[in-house]
Amino acid sequence: MNKPRELDILMAQKVLGHQTYHEKTGALRERLPSGQTRPLRPFANDITAAWEIVEKLGITLLPVDQGWFALVGQKRGWTSPAEFITYLQTADFANSGAAVGEQAPMTICLAAMKALERRHVEPAVWTGEANDEQSPSLPN
């Protein structure tokens, strides 16, 4: 799945725990847990929006030749660069999500989705750990 708007919906629902819906005009909106609503943010195309995903998951984002590397580790963030390097050296990525891409926002979203797939769960609100909660389904 690489359709940016579908990724936007999935990021809002599965990572942030927001509800998404269509207005009568057809515009997509998201309802935050606080009850506030806003236009669905372009997580896959805008770094400001994607940064909300980075902060929620503690994604490590590194520049690489001709693009970006994004990694969702087993836990949120690292205590030091040495801990990050040690994690990479263990190669224990069973519950991690990683992606490489040209654009940082899309790469962030793809790494987040890969982490969800690898953890075999679809939590309504991301906790950073696998659990058995089910998320709301995508709107049609």
N/C terminus separation: 16 Å
User: Low-confidence parts lasting 5 or more residues at pLDDT below 50?
Assistant: 122-140
* SSE class: alpha+beta
Domain module count: 1
> How would you characterize the largest beta sheet?
3 strands, antiparallel
- CATH homologous superfamily - what is it? Bacillus phage protein-like
How many strand elements?
6
Count of runs of 4 or more consecutive helical residues: 4
Q: What is the H/E string?
A: HEEEHEEHEH
Rg value? 15 Å
| Average predicted confidence as pLDDT | 82
Helix content: 25-40%
Which strands sit side by side, in order, in the main sheet? 1-2-3
Report the sheet-strand fraction: 15-25%
Question: What is the approximate shape?
Answer: elongated
CATH class: Alpha Beta
Would you tell me which CATH topology applies?
Answer: Bacillus phage protein
CATH architecture title = 2-Layer Sandwich
Layout of helices and strands:
Blueprint: H1 4-15, E1 19-22, E2 28-31, E3 37-39, H2 47-57, E4 60-64, E5 67-72, H3 81-90, E6 97-101, H4 104-118
Antiparallel strand pairs: 1-2, 2-3, 4-5, 5-6
Walkthrough of the structure:
The chain has 140 residues and is of the alpha+beta class. It has a single domain, classed as Bacillus phage protein-like (Bacillus phage protein). The chain contains four helices and six strands. The strands form two sheets. A three-stranded antiparallel β-sheet has the order 1-2-3, covered by helices on one side. A three-stranded antiparallel β-sheet has the order 4-5-6. The radius of gyration is 15 Å and the shape is elongated.
